[in-house]
Amino acid sequence: MPDVVKPLLDDQGKPLPPDLALQKIEKLNIPWTDIHLYQPSNYAWPKVLADKLAIPVENHARRGACFQQIARQCAAAQATIAPDDVVIVMWTYISRLSLQWPARTAVPFCTIANPNWAWKTVILGFNKFFGLEPSKTSTKDAEDRIQQYIEKSTKETYLDPLGVYNQYYNNMVLQTMTDGFLRATGARVIHLSVEMDPVLGQLESARSQLDPTLREPYNIPDPAEWYRVPVDYDSCYVLLDPSIPPAENDMHPSVAHHANFAEHIHKLYFK
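Predicted structure:
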């Protein structure tokens, strides 16, 4: 969003296009915090929606958050939630992992990476996360090896057998608990998602990859019998509308996407 990104300028004071900006970042080793302002955007859909409703907004979102981070933000905000409030939780991709640190949240694992511009920032992020110097050179073979490592690590972070099932299952438990304590405040709770595939289906897909001896019978509770979180998986089509160009500085939804999404949520839940 334009109000939370400080564009890198050329010699004439004009914003550099993304590819040249990335080259300047790599060459000068510009810190991430010198480009991105750590604050909610006034163009983001929560603020746009709140303005439509003529109510104040508290945006507790964090960049790159996983289910654990989102649940933690909800838990931290719980004491301030009043019975006449509206709480909207927008869940991320269930496959997203992050490492939790006191000073920040790092997301070194991602199964989807743009091989052009955005993917290079992941490589830089790896080096910065581990305290290394940014990569001055990059080859396709090196990127392919790192991509394979990321995909393998995402599925085997919790070690064998296929820890992705463990991650998905625990995320669903965490989401259910979050829904419960939010509703206990008396506030209206709405669950949205940035992905289109319901988590029960994703969990079943992961289960099918387990060794047959680990699939049945259910010694842990079958999620189909207890998972009841009412998540809206359809509205994200508006936020991810491919007919609208993405944000100018990267591949994320643009100002237009956010405005359209706010209008959609307003009509769907508040008309």
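Summary: The two ends are 27 Å apart (CA to CA).
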